[in-house]
Amino acid sequence: MVPTHMTPTEDALRLTGVTGALSPLLLALGLVAAMIAVAGAVRVVAVRRARREARLWDCGGGPMSARMEYTATSFAEPLQRVFDDVVRPEHDVDITHYRESRYLVDEVSYRLRVPDRVEHRLYRPVLAGVRAWGRAGPRLANGSVHLYLGYGFVVVCGALILLVATR
Amino acid sequence: MSVAGVISALLQIVLVAVGSPLLVGVMRQIRARLEGRAGAGVLQPWRDLRKLARKQPITPRGTSEVFRTAPLLMLATTVAVVAVAPFVTIAAVPDAGTDLFVVVALLTLGAAALALAGLDTGTAFGGMGASREITILALVEPTLLVAIFALSVPVGSTNLADIVTSILHNPSRAITPANLLAGVALGLAVVAETGRLPVDNPSTHLELTMVHEAMVLEYAGPDLALVELASAMRLSVFLGLWATLFAPWGIAADAGVGVLALGTLVFMVKVTALGTALAAGEVFLAKLRLFRVPELLAGSFVLALLAVVASFFFG
Question: Taking CB atoms and an 8 Å limit, are B106 and A31 in contact across chains?
Fold first, then answer.
């Protein structure tokens, strides 16, 4: 479905060329109405007792300290592992042992970085090319009228040769 | 929206709300019988819901409003989809139409709300379940959308009612290569979205393999009842959508009493048959390792892409 033109009518976005309409306002209203209806039904059906606070259960383990909770990195880890070949994350695990024994671990540091592959593979080469072209510019246009006349001559000759060759 | 539309929408909501736990009961019973167990009976999910609804609501310390509204939002999105989808009768579809992309977006919103609730608890299992659920969702959504695109290309519309009537008026469209490929792709996507084997085991409470169950660990009492009811309804909705898209025969064209009764019966038969097939198939399957799931979903995505190509080449 390629929405070439979107014509807004009063309450709905209509896509010309294909039938199908979407009304965000009606959708939101419907959703709120459904939530109110469900909440009302729960009040009627369920036992009306005051909410009680309780300890987080977490299979008997909870509640945890902030250091043990999920971070953005850990949350995205499965997805990142799925797209391993594309994003190519870089892991680093450094283990420092105690001087006395190799069996005792003093510190483990884990680092994970996802370098921006688009930046490296696409933007960097393009930017480098543009920069090289920019450096070449002053050498090509150094203010010499003779050089500019030469350019004009070469271009006219080239155009004439091209015209002869393509006739 | 006409009176007939409102009546049909209410009928569909009541039918799915009452029938979904029964469907889950039937599926569990079939599985139990095939595995040589007696089973708890078809009514057991309803008994569980009644028991949970009578308990005192509990707020775990450290959770916010996100945790408390997620079950409501999940159920509300499902109810909204049931109200406008042509499950029993096309009369339930409002004049503006029921866009398939909106249906998928609503169902995904419900899943995302539950994932946020799992993350909101801040526990290890909540976070793990949410993380896995979002990973699977992110892989399933492209398949769903591309398969829907393949279905809508020959019809020229993403309106559910248009797709259904087009197949009803032109039955040979049901067996076009595009439709069959999209059917298989959507079937796999439905299995993944509803958390059935081999993607997620709905009956497991083995900590490290849970996806859906891990997210809802902190829910108790009426909140848990809402989550369970919403998951059961989502299962019915996905099976119903699949049946509506690929076997739309028996869907009533208007809202007369006779055709509504027939439409209800046919819908129940279709969804129960699909549920039975799913439950029977699950007996022979083991859960896939989490990092093998993407391969399965990539396969279904390829099928969906082939369906789009086929829909352009073979009409």
Answer: yes
Is A75 part of the contact surface with chain B (CB cutoff 8 Å)?
Answer: yes
At a CB cut-off of 8 Å and minimum separation 6, what does B62 contact? A56, A63, B121, B122
Tell me which residues of chain A, numbers 125 to 164, contact chain B at a CB-CB cutoff of 8 Å: none
CA B38 to each of CA B7, B35, B43: distance values in angstroms, whole numbers, following the listed order: 39, 9, 14
Instruction: Report domain extents, chain B.
Output: 3-313
**Partner residue opposite A19 with nearest CB, options B58, B73, B157:** B157
- Provide the ipTM: 0.80
Query: Under an 8 A CB cutoff, do A79 and B225 touch?
Result: no
Tell me the average confidence (pLDDT) per consecutive run of 10 residues in chain B, 315 residues long. Answer: 84 94 95 92 94 90 90 94 90 81 91 93 88 92 91 87 88 85 92 85 72 87 92 95 90 83 93 94 86 89 92 79
> B130, B85, B117: which is closest to B227 by C-alpha?
B117
Q: How many CB pairs under 8 A join A and B?
A: 157
